[in-house]
Each structure stands twice: as C-alpha cells, then as structure tokens.
Amino acid sequence: MIAFVTGKFVYKSPAVVHVDVNGVGYEVQVSLNTYSKIQSLEKGSLYTWLHIKEDAHTLYGFFDMAEKNIFTQLISVNGVGTSTARMMLSAMQPDELAQAIVKGDTFRLEKIKGIGKKSAERIVLELRDKMGKTSFETTGSALINNTLEQDALNALVALGIVRNVAESAIKKAAASAPSTENLETLIKKALQLI
C-alpha cells in the first residue's frame, strides 16, 4: 500500500524515525542497519512495508530494497514476526544475514536475540533456496539522489569499493566542491578520500 516515503527526518532514534512528508508525519519502525545509514541525513527516502493487525497499523522502513526483501522473506517463515525480523536486521547487515541463511550457518543466527536453535533451523530450511536464487545487493540508495552522484557511486562499486564507504566518500567529495559538474572529477576526489 505504501511503497516508500520521502521527506524530512524530523525525529530519529535507533528504532523509530518520524518522516515529514509535505506536512504529514509518518512514524516508521527501522532497524539499526537503516538507522546507521540515515542518522546523519536531514531528509531522504525509506522503502516501506505496512503491517496491518486488528489493533494497529505499523509502518516499517528500510534504507534499500535489499533489506526490505529480506524482511518480507523472514516474516514469511512460521514463527518469525515483524519484531524478530527487525531484530535480525539490526544484528546483522542484510547481505551477511542472507549469506548466513544460504550457507546454513544456524550457529550465527542463534547469536541473535530471540532466535533459538529451532527457529534458526526453520529459517534456514524455508529460506535457503529462495535466498540462494536472489541477489541482495543494494539497488538504490536514499543517500544519493543526484544522478551524477549515483553514477559515481555505481562506478566506485564496480571498482570493488564497499558501497557504504563509496557513499561516504562521494558525499564528502560533493560537499567539498558542490559545483562539481564532471563525473570523472567527482570519482577522483572520492577515491582520494577513501
């Protein structure tokens, strides 16, 4: 129903973000993973998933589609609710969590609060094949909206630089010379900052 929200982050905590979207405030539940990526931002976009229960409507927000996709797969497992899925995404990066499931690393999953041996085994059993066929690389970022910056990010990632490191470097490079109109110059400045 609500695919994403874009606006000002008027309140941020490690669990909840309030997003002002043209005067309407949305309370969005987030993981520590998402919070760590938006904590220094004043505005941006979050991909969302609306959980409707008899007594509440809860909106969950994610920094990228990879995290949202893992969340929806986790809650499809019997016995894994939205709180547990959010806890799992707070304890591990989405790609690390997907790798642990694909590799059948139940020991690593059991280290997450609220996940016991049986739950870890059930998650691996039900999701291993599904996650093995799906790529959970970040496909879009709320951090970079400018197409020049997005192109620079794609270039740095293609060079093998970790996405969050590349995003940080591009952000710093763009801030140091906001009038940069040249992709090559932006990439070079970002590489110097890594």
Element layout with pairings:
Elements: E1 4-12, E2 16-21, E3 24-29, H1 32-38, E4 43-52, E5 57-62, H2 65-75, H3 82-91, H4 94-102, H5 106-110, H6 117-132, H7 147-158, H8 163-176, H9 183-193
Q: Summary?
A:
This protein has 194 residues and is of the alpha+beta class. 49% of the residues lie in helices and 19% in strands.
- Strand adjacency order, main sheet: 1-2-3-5-4
Q: Secondary-structure element sequence?
A: EEEHEEHHHHHHHH
Strand content: 15-25%
**What's the overall geometry?**
globular
- Rounded to the nearest angstrom, the radius of gyration is 18 Å
Q: Which whole number gives the mean pLDDT? A: 85
Straight-line N-to-C gap? 39 Å
- Based on secondary structure, the structural category is alpha+beta
Enumerate the spans where pLDDT stays under 50 for 5 or more consecutive residues.
Answer: 137-145
